[in-house]
Structure formats: C-alpha cells, structure tokens
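Model it.
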Amino acid sequence: MGWRLSQAQLFNGNQKVYVFPTRVKLENSDLGYTLIMDEPSGAVDIFNDRKKLRCRVPLNKFHSSVASTLSVAGECPAGLPWVKTSAPQPKDLANVPGTWYLATESKNLFAGSKYGGYLAGAKRVEHTRHMLFVSSAIEVAPPLNKIFCELQGEPRLGGFPLLQFSRIAENGRRTYWLQTTRADKVRFDQVDWKIPDYKEGSQLDVLTSKESKILEELF
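Modeled.
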C-alpha cells in the first residue's frame, strides 16, 4: 500500500503525489510535467503531456542537475534549526499520524523608504514563526524523500512533509509553503507508472510550460 496526496506548494503550484516505499510520482498540473523517481532502477523520469516530451536523469545526479533549479522556494526556512513541538492535528490530515516541528524564530527588518509610500516611516521588525508537519507513517526510501524535500524547499526531518506555514507575530498573517488537502491510501497499479514514448527533450523543455516562465528564468 502507498499514499496519494493532493498538495499545493507556494511556487510550484498544485500537484498530486503518489508515494510508495521505493517509488514517488509527482504530477504537477500547473507546470504540466510528471516526475517519477524509482529507487530500484536508479532513475528519475520526467515527461510533459502538453509538449509530448520526456527525459531521464540518474537518481544520484538529480540534485545537481534538476532539484537545485526546481527549488524555487528559496525563501522557505529549510535551513533553520527545527525542534519537535505540540499542536492540534491538521483537520485535512486526520487519518495521517505525524509530528509537528517548530523552527527557530526569524526576524525581518524593514528600514522605511525615503521615497514615501507604505515603506516610509519608522523602522520595524517582523517576527516570523515557522511550523512544519511531517509523517513517518508515509514510508519512502531516504534518497527519494531527500529529492522530494529539495523540490518543495522543505527541511529533511525524518518524515514526509505534508504541511508548512509561516506566521508573522505582529499581524497574524500566514503564508502556506506546502499544504496537503487530502491523503488517501492506495494500492500500487503499474498502469499509473507507465512512461509515455514521447520525443526526447532537454530538462528545460520538459519541465516548463508556455504559461510559466519561472523555471526558464532559473536556467
């Protein structure tokens, strides 16, 4: 048995993720690509149904060639120290046991602008609290979890990331970096993992769509 997750990531958009112990499939409906990580074969296959293109990357080289480019959530506090904490179970994840983590508080200084407008005035400091919910009940090989975390801009804390948000203490505003709105247990079906016989393309061509220029600007 594995899991099917419905997720939204702040920069990458909406995605459906299938997670099994040795395989992970990510379908990104906004950027138009599908990514399949397979530990037994040691490969990552990426294809784009809109462009009818595909490419293959060795699993052990994926970080340097693709993941570093796709981690567009660079402002996400993945590099901060995290500690376990207690908080209510996320309502959309009632069926998934997990653990909450709290990151070291960060401070953002706004110095005021000499040009006027909303940035003008006295200096101010915003204190931000970062929360992350992960689940070790969703079993996946460490190399696959590592790549998935890098793709989403998430820290690796021993579980599969399901929810992360930041909250500014001064005004209570929340930013959701990663949200899982649904998690269902599913059986493995080989049909779901079929790789279409599309034309070989570059990683840039396969991973981007005409509607999004974010990844194109990063290459």
